[in-house]
Design a protein that fits this description.
heterodimer, A: 447 residues, alpha/beta, Rossmann fold, 6-stranded mixed sheet, 4-stranded antiparallel sheet, 14 helices, 17 strands, globular, B: 307 residues, mainly alpha, Ammonium transporter fold, 2 strands
């Protein structure tokens, strides 16, 4: 079975929501749309307080390259543009829209295309205007991904259907329910980057998804060479670098991008959003969110409008149980905890996970006993034990020499450490310190 | 709804159940097998000695940590393991008071003074044994015959002077003179199988260690099987060369460590002044651990750099 080095076999807890079809969540009366829902530069608002907006209308954009515009997810009136709490634990400028009953008709800003008529440039433009970002959680603007750096040819588009984080089943449901749309999106992406090969990587614990996509693949016209590959179920198989290694046996150079090895990796949800933008002219205003965990009374997969508060989404799953201690945006391995339930669902919200006091054990940090489990688990081949030593002693130069910046923060080392050392936490701090150090060095040279 | 008391924390939000205490408990459990063999061949006195050193080590750790005003961590089980390991590498019939001193030396001097769990350079049990060897060499080399406790010589010594040695089968089962826990290869292998199965230890160090002794013995004109089955080789390879703290941390480093242990064991056995060399071979390789660690780091994904 194809895979990568290192990694973990986790308990997946996917059965809870696996068989729950995606259900459209009730439209909220009020949405909060942060001006930055992607990696890169924040957007500028295109509307003022008091303006009336319709669903799908572009309300914020940026002139800079690495940014994706924001669209209204409900029709209504802009009631505030102000700082608002977000999942990243600091406030970000956001546009607040409140539904008004006078405006209820959604307008479709775009038209429908058949993608055979479109040039690669047109597809990229449509993707950009639809505000599409990587929906697997990283939220990198997709149109930037589709624009390979000058001099680099992309020969293969990889669709990431691994969904290796425990609990999350949104991508799985999309693969089962919308396989044909997925294939269409993959083809649009392949056309945009000029690739002839499409590979869809799915972990072998999702046989239904493999079957559904294989069926659609055979129906598709064979302009593109489409292959579906079953991959070993191992965390973090869905990491971009791990997936490329497993499917192509290529390694993205340290500090490089997938385009350096001729690949573009898009998540299942992203490919479907691209298909919707191209074929239906629909911008990204809603996404699938798996609402799950032992703290959720009725876990399910919901299609949620962006900007809906966590509280309102959780309400539709019959609320939280009383002993909830942590609510996480994303999965249990890499997700961010939210400070309260007022934070909105954004483009990166793959999952709302509620963990109870039964699931969370706060162990005291012990001494490293040098068991070496972190080294075996690290999918990159780092030595987390030594990096932690450098982090604790503030030895940033040495941490840099041991390649701290190659760390993908997957959490395998922290998970497996028998001494319960919070390694990822140390590495996040160390990375910031190393960055600051390098910046200072650069300045010193310039002077 | 407990909205106002949600915990904010860095990922990951789930942890493996296998903590340090689990690893220690599993390792301690595996030591039951050689202890059973020792008790069977050398009587309840041997069992008492092993338990005594185990308890002495725990007491020494508790007292030392109290006096040094450190948090008392006896409950993690590591001191007990050190004490039991020391007991298992002592000759049956060894005086209790000397054994107790050895346990105290292991815990206080070799482990505690270097900073406690995770910071000691030398394997505490082996360093304790070396201390006893230097202090009471006669008591440390007075062996007993199994079952009847008649004083006799060790097979390795007999081989060195050209005497008659037990057959392979007796050596494999453990029916020979030797340290309490080291004689029965069979029971040590059962313990090893358990440790591999539970992924408590990994193969590179023990396999490289035993393999090197086998191959080198063959090329140096000695009986390789005899060399593997006697002395403390298999015991040391399984329980001592796999020590997390004092051995290298990467699989590759552990292989190199085992290789070095094997070479040194053969050199001491064939050309040195002692009949047995496992103890010193491992202690000498402990010194090299930081160097091996530095140069055996894995290659990182997407580069020729080391992690």
């Amino acid at each position: 079975m194809r895979s990568f080095n290192g990694g973990l076999h986790l308990s997946y807890y996917k059965d809870v929501t696996k068989e729950r079809p995606i259900k459209e969540a009730a439209a909220p009366r009020r949405v909060v749309l942060p001006l930055q829902q992607h990696l890169g530069c924040p957007c500028e608002p295109l509307v003022k307080v008091g303006d009336e907006v319709t669903e799908g209308q572009k309300i914020a954009d940026s002139k800079l390259l690495v940014a994706a515009p924001i669209h209204a997810s409900i029709s209504g009136r802009v009631t505030a543009i102000q700082y608002f709490p977000n999942a990243c634990d600091f406030d970000v400028p956001s546009i607040v829209i409140e539904a008004t009953d006078s405006i209820d008709k959604a307008t479709r800003p775009g038209s429908r295309w058949t993608f055979d008529e479109l040039s690669p440039e047109q597809i990229k433009k449509i993707v950009r205007e639809a505000g599409i970002v990587g929906l697997g959680g990283a939220a990198f603007p997709t149109h930037v991904k589709l624009t390979a750096p000058v001099g680099k040819a992309i020969d293969v588009v990889i669709i990431n259907g691994c969904e290796c984080e425990p609990f999350i089943t949104g991508d799985y449901r999309l693969m089962v329910e919308k396989a044909s749309t997925l294939i269409l999106g993959a083809k649009a992406i392949a056309k945009a980057v000029g690739a002839r090969r499409i590979m869809i990587g799915i972990e072998d614990n999702k046989p239904e998804a493999l079957k559904a996509i294989n069926f659609e693949r055979l129906k598709a016209r064979q302009i593109f060479a489409i292959t579906v590959a079953a991959l070993q179920t191992k965390y973090p198989q869905g990491g971009e670098k791990m997936l490329i290694k497993a499917l192509l046996n290529r390694e993205v150079p340290s500090g490089g991008l997938p385009s350096d090895v001729g690949a573009v990796v898009c998540n299942v949800g992203t490919a479907i959003a691209v298909a919707d933008a191209v074929a239906q002219g629909v911008p990204l205003t809603r996404r699938v969110v798996t609402v799950t965990g032992p703290g959720i009374k009725e876990p399910q997969n919901l299609l949620v409008r962006l900007g809906t508060s966590f509280a309102e989404v959780i309400e539709q799953c019959r609320g939280l149980s009383d002993n909830v201690e942590k609510v996480i945006m994303g999965g249990p391995m890499m997700g961010l905890t939210v400070p309260n339930l007022e934070v909105p669902v954004v483009k990166a919200t793959t999952c709302i996970l509620a963990l109870t006091d039964q699931d969370i054990r706060n162990y005291p940090e012990g001494n490293c006993i040098r068991c070496g489990r972190c080294i075996k688990a690290c999918p990159i081949g780092l030595t987390p034990n030594f990096l932690a030593e450098f982090a604790k002693t503030g030895n940033w130069t040495e941490a840099d020499k041991y390649n701290i910046n190659d760390c993908i923060e997957c959490g395998c080392c922290s998970y497996i450490c028998p001494s319960r050392i919070p390694l990822v936490q140390y590495f996040k701090l160390t990375k910031n310190a190393v960055r600051a150090l390098k910046l200072a060095e650069k300045k010193a040279v310039c002077r | 709804m407990p909205i106002n008391k949600l915990i904010v924390q860095i990922s990951p939000h789930i942890r493996s159940k296998e903590g340090t205490d689990y690893l220690m408990r599993a390792f301690a459990f595996s030591l039951i097998f050689p202890t059973i063999a020792g008790t069977y061949f050398f009587g309840l006195g041997a069992l008492a000695l092993v338990l005594f050193t185990g308890l002495m080590a725990m007491a020494a750790e508790a007292v030392f940590q109290k006096l040094a005003k450190q948090p008392v961590t006896v409950r993690d089980g590591s001191a007990f393991i050190t004490g039991v390991l020391l007991g298992l590498v002592l000759p049956p019939g060894f005086p209790f008071w000397m054994a107790g001193l050895g346990a105290v030396f292991s815990i206080v001097v070799v482990k505690g003074l270097f900073g406690g769990l995770g910071f000691n350079i030398f394997n505490p049990a082996l360093a304790g044994r070396a201390f006893l060897m230097a202090s009471w060499p006669v008591a440390m080399t007075s062996w007993l015959r199994p079952f009847d406790a008649v004083t006799t010589a060790s097979p390795l010594y007999l081989a060195k002077i050209g005497g008659a040695v037990p057959d392979y089968w007796a050596l494999f089962l453990g029916n020979r003179a030797g340290s309490i826990g080291e004689t029965s290869i069979l029971l040590i292998l059962i313990a090893a199988a358990f440790l591999f199965w539970k992924k408590i230890i990994d193969w590179p160090a023990p396999v490289a260690f035993i393999g090197t002794v086998f191959v080198l013995s063959y090329f140096l004109g000695q009986d390789p099987l005899f060399q593997v089955l006697t002395g403390g080789l298999v015991f040391g390879a399984v329980f001592m060369a796999t020590d997390y703290v004092t051995g290298p941390v990467t699989p590759k480093g552990r292989f190199i460590f085992g290789l070095g242990c094997g070479v040194l064991t053969v050199l001491i056995r064939f050309y040195g002044g002692f009949p047995e060399g496992v103890n010193y071979a491992i202690l000498l390789m402990n010194i090299l651990t930081p160097v091996i660690d530095k140069y055996s780091r894995p290659r990182i994904y997407g580069g020729n750099k080391r992690g």
